[in-house]
Write a structure and sequence with these properties.
The protein is an alpha+beta fold and about 180 residues long. The radius of gyration is 19 Å and the shape is globular. The chain starts with 5 loop residues before the first strand and ends with a helix.
């Protein structure tokens, strides 16, 4: 394990729905001082939501930084004091109007650890039931999409989708399924 840099100073540069921080660091190897910009988003949850064993509930939305419509998992932030499961059900209900009978933890990832302070928990949601009409936040322009799991898997394997949470969740799900089949 390498020695960690020493933080000389830390300054909040911006605070909105995300934060931008500038840390001044000293590298232990050569005592080099430098500024390191960090974007802080916090914790989130993304769910591979199965309406049934073969059909996924997903979202498509335009993502301005990459200027593309992206097929994504249903996802959102975890509020302070909220469990992963509670956040997943809240986001699922807000964005789709569905409730999950079962939420199963899959993995935790750091989407871009070189510059993004964010932890994303990926879960599987089963036994979905439509409860009400979705109530997305005003800035969320989601199109809820129902797709066969096998189709999404094939599209991920052909590099059609670039969303890291979607790719991770589908690949993790497939590896776990294949591993369990061997026993």
């Amino acid at each position: 394990m390498t020695k960690k840099p020493k933080i000389i100073s830390s300054e909040q540069v911006y605070k909105g729905w995300l934060e931008l921080r500038k840390d001044r660091l000293i590298l232990p190897r050569n005592s080099l001082e430098y500024d390191y910009d960090v974007i802080k988003i916090g914790e989130g949850v993304a769910m591979l939501a199965f309406i049934n064993s073969d059909i996924l509930l997903l979202a498509t939305q335009y993502r301005h930084p990459v200027k593309e419509d992206m097929l994504e998992l249903i996802q959102g932030g975890i509020k302070k004091g909220e469990s992963i499961e509670d956040a997943a059900n809240r986001e699922l209900m807000e964005e789709t109007g569905y409730s999950a009978g079962t939420i199963e933890y899959m993995a935790t990832i750091y989407p871009l650890p070189g510059s993004l302070e964010m932890k994303l928990h990926i879960v599987r949601a089963y036994c979905l039931e439509k409860i009400k009409q979705p109530e997305p936040e005003p800035a969320e322009d989601l199109v809820i999409t129902i797709r066969p799991y096998q189709q999404v898997l094939e599209e991920v394997l052909s590099n059609m989708h670039k969303d890291s949470a979607l790719v991770t969740a589908v690949m993790y799900n497939e590896l776990k399924r294949k591993t369990l089949e061997r026993f």
